[in-house]
UniProtKB/TrEMBL annotation, chain B:
PP2A consists of a common heterodimeric core enzyme, composed of a 36 kDa catalytic subunit (subunit C) and a 65 kDa constant regulatory subunit (PR65 or subunit A), that associates with a variety of regulatory subunits. Belongs to the phosphatase 2A regulatory subunit B family. This is Serine/threonine-protein phosphatase 2A 55 kDa regulatory subunit B. SMART domains: WD40 (SM00320).
Length: 117, 449
């Protein structure tokens, strides 16, 4: 009799552990994914939604163009009489200031839609 | 309305009808379809693309000789709606991509639609011309000016028939009212006003007046550092002209009544499903962000789409949705990579069928899903050139989640996440659907025996 009881106890413990293991896996594939992400990017802030993400979204399309820098560079080029395109590029002040040539084509699309064939 | 597994004769079987667009290895970015919309009768189907162009298809009259062939949609008009712009003052590039098209109800021979990019809404008039005046006195038939000295008699010009010409003209341009990017437009049932919605504000316009707009919702915080929530979509109630809803990036929907106040910052109803705090993860808020909100045709229900589910809400019950449908729950264990490749931010739309009994939304791998609210059955179909023989019946598709993969199933890891169906439309009264698969437009209809 006592043997039987002991056996039952052990099997209960075993299922208890199994259950907890299962729960850990089942609790959340999301949490498992979150752990994966945090491992890859340890500097990721705790709050994912919140201002950083949203502000990035609101700033879509922002391109910085300083007409002063651009025109100064153009003026210098005229004096030196170098071929326009390449010289302008080398005269750009700062690393990331685009010229109108660098910005994507803003001409209207004159090509008809391929759905309208 | 859903293809049955048991071959129940009452079930709808969907067939391929048409596909528009070309097959290209490298898709031209401008060709990516960004919005699809039937007009209120279903006679016209409009698409907008990333290149700022609108193409309108018209349904052919059904011929009595071929009753099994439903009317086909053919090109009716195409025009450049928006062009790329650069706001020099703010150093902001303004994309020409058409975010939304909404048709106005028809009240004369011409058709009207509103189309919008990130900053400007335009009212377009599409009209037919099938006659032209002939017999001018001062011009000859080729248009060359005649020397008045040679004219000895006068005649009255007459209208003569000509080949049909469809013209699109911009009748109103509603601009300079949005600091942030417009995500929705909605025509009011009063047929006099419409609203345009950006991330933080909603503006009300009169269709006739372009130099004035009223702000009706403003959720911009005094300090932008405190920003926690943005508006993701908004829509007017289909028959109550004082009521509209807007959804947020936090998964809530607010219903507002314009009779209550001029500025509707205080909602009349607030719909949100309570979250289980123990389930909260880094991704919870992102996947709860609502990408689309649509009233049912009856006006009794609301449908919302978030990253993994579609929910139907009863307007009279704010505490939780009436129904929740899993679109692609198997993606829950892929959220990390979906966050890294930005797919977790994809904005899927959702639509009702004409009788509000079936709802449809898109997924990845060019799959789209339909849920029958009555039978609780659902189906996954695919928009693919492989099933594009005329009237070919679409076979239901199945994604297998780990374990043994059956022959026809596709495993989660084989899904193509670049093939996403974000935009779909359902004909207002018939079982005809339009599905935008990147740069191709598919039209499917139910099988007619």
């Amino acid at each position: 009799m006592s043997e039987e009881i002991e056996e039952t106890k052990t099997s209960e413990e075993a299922t208890g552990e199994e259950q907890r293991e299962m729960e850990d896996k089942v609790i959340s594939p999301e949490k498992a994914e979150e752990a994966k992400l945090k491992k890859r990017y340890p500097n990721l802030g705790a709050k994912p939604g919140g201002s950083d993400l949203l502000r990035k979204r609101l700033q879509k399309g922002q391109k910085y163009f300083d007409s002063g820098d651009y025109n100064m560079a153009k003026a210098k080029v005229k004096n030196k009489q170098l071929p326009a395109a390449t010289a302008e590029k080398t005269e750009i002040t700062g690393d990331h200031i685009p010229t109108p040539q660098d910005l994507p084509q803003r001409k209207p699309s004159l090509v008809a839609s391929k759905l309208a064939v | 309305m859903i293809p049955g597994r048991g071959g129940d004769p009452d079930d709808t079987r969907w067939c391929f009808a048409q596909v528009k667009g070309v097959v290209e290895v490298n898709v031209t970015e401008a060709d990516i379809i960004s919005t699809v919309e039937f007009n209120s009768t279903g006679e016209l189907l409009a698409t907008g693309d990333k290149g700022g162009r609108v193409v309108v298809f018209q349904r052919e009259q059904e011929s009595k000789n071929q009753p099994h062939r439903r009317g086909e949609y053919n090109v009716y008009s195409t025009f450049q709606s928006h062009e790329p712009e650069f706001d020099y003052l703010k150093s902001l590039e303004i994309e020409e991509k058409i975010n939304k098209i909404r048709w106005l109800p028809q009240h004369n021979a011409a058709y009207f639609l509103l189309s919008t990019n990130d900053k400007t809404v335009k009212l377009w008039k599409i009209s037919e011309r099938d006659r032209r005046p002939e017999g001018y006195n001062l011009k000859d038939e080729e248009g060359r000016i005649r020397d008045p000295a040679t004219i000895t008699t006068l005649r009255v010009p007459v209208l003569r028939p000509m080949d049909l010409m469809v013209e699109a003209t911009a009748r109103r341009i509603f601009s300079n009212a949005h600091t942030y990017h417009i995500n929705s437009i909605s025509v009011n049932s009063d047929y006099e006003t419409f609203m345009s919605t950006d991330d933080l504000r909603i503006n009300l316009w009169n269709l006739e007046i372009t130099n004035k707009s009223f702000n009706i919702v403003d959720i911009k915080p005094a300090n932008m550092e405190e920003l926690t929530e943005v508006i993701t979509a908004a829509e007017f109630h289909p028959n109550q002209c004082n009521t509209f809803v807007y959804s947020s990036s936090k998964g809530s929907i607010r219903l507002c009544d314009m009779r209550a106040a001029a500025l509707c910052d205080n909602h009349s109803k607030f719909f949100e499903e309570p979250e289980d705090p123990s389930n909260r993860s880094f991704f919870s808020e992102i996947i709860s962000s609502i990408s689309d909100v649509k009233f049912s045709h009856s006006g009794r229900y609301l449908m919302t789409r978030d990253y993994l589910t579609v929910k139907v809400w009863d307007l009279n019950m704010e505490s939780k949705p009436l129904e929740t449908y899993q679109v692609h729950d198997y993606l829950r264990s892929k959220l990390c990579s979906l966050y890294e490749n930005d797919c977790i931010f994809d904005k899927f739309e959702c639509v009702w069928n004409g009788s509000d009994s079936v709802i449809m939304t898109g997924s990845y791998n060019n799959f789209f899903r339909m849920f029958d609210r009555n039978t609780k059955r659902d189906v996954t179909l695919e928009a693919s050139r492989e099933n594009s023989k005329p009237r070919a019946i679409l076979k239901p598709r199945k994604v297998c989640v780990g374990g043994k993969r059956r022959k026809d199933e596709i495993s989660v890891d084989s899904l193509d996440f670049s093939k996403k169906i974000l935009h779909t439309a359902w004909h207002p009264s018939e079982n005809i659907i339009a599905v935008a698969a990147t740069n191709n437009l598919y039209i499917f209809q139910d099988k007619v025996n």
